[in-house]
């Protein structure tokens, strides 16, 4: 019998024990076994498949980090994973609420006037003045004005 088939037949308790002792492949089997259920759990609570996908990765990362603390129920790790998922969802929700409240406390952004019209007007004025200067430079010097005899 192959080691992969042996891992698939093993119960969660044995897989967790082996994962705790460095067999990361056993954790992969646990992910394959329970990932879909955890994803569905997260999706039902968040209403978002995308959020559920993110949460599943966080849940299993936390499960890996805490793999020495696993609490199996009748040899099944899924209830423990649901507990991690529930706490992860609550944490995410609290973070979102704090973020919204912080945004509400910020002063509204003041409207910055668009200065494009002013800049365009100045450029037009500069072009107009340059044309006037060029036209004035083309004029002949002024003739002295003769006074009429009285």
Summarize the structure.
The protein has 150 residues and is an all-alpha fold. It has six helices and no strands.
Outline the structure in words.
With 150 residues, this protein is an all-alpha fold. It contains six helices and no strands. It is rod-shaped. The model has no long low-confidence stretch (mean pLDDT 86).
Number of helices: 6
**Rg over C-alpha atoms, rounded to the nearest angstrom:** 38 Å
Overall helicity: over 70%
Low-confidence stretches: none
Outline type: rod-shaped
**Distance N to C terminus:** 135 Å
Structural class: mainly alpha
How would you classify the quaternary structure?
single chain
Query: H/E order of the elements?
Result: HHHHHH
On the 0 to 100 scale, the average pLDDT is 86
Outline the biggest β-sheet: none
Strand portion, in percent? Answer: under 5%
What is the total tally of β strands?
A: 0
């Amino acid at each position: 019998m192959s080691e992969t088939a042996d891992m698939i037949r093993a119960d969660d308790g044995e897989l967790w024990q082996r994962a705790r002792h460095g067999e990361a492949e056993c954790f992969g089997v646990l992910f394959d076994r329970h990932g879909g259920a955890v994803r569905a759990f997260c999706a039902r609570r968040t209403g978002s498949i995308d959020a559920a996908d993110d949460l599943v990765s966080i849940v299993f990362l936390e499960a890996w980090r805490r793999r020495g603390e696993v609490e199996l129920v009748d040899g099944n790790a899924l209830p423990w994973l649901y507990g991690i998922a529930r706490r992860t969802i609550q944490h995410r929700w609290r973070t979102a609420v704090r973020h919204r409240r912080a945004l509400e406390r910020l002063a509204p952004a003041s409207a910055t006037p668009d200065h494009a019209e002013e800049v365009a007007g100045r450029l037009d004025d500069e072009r107009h003045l340059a044309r006037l200067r060029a036209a004035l430079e083309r004029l002949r010097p002024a003739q002295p004005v003769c006074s009429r005899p009285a």
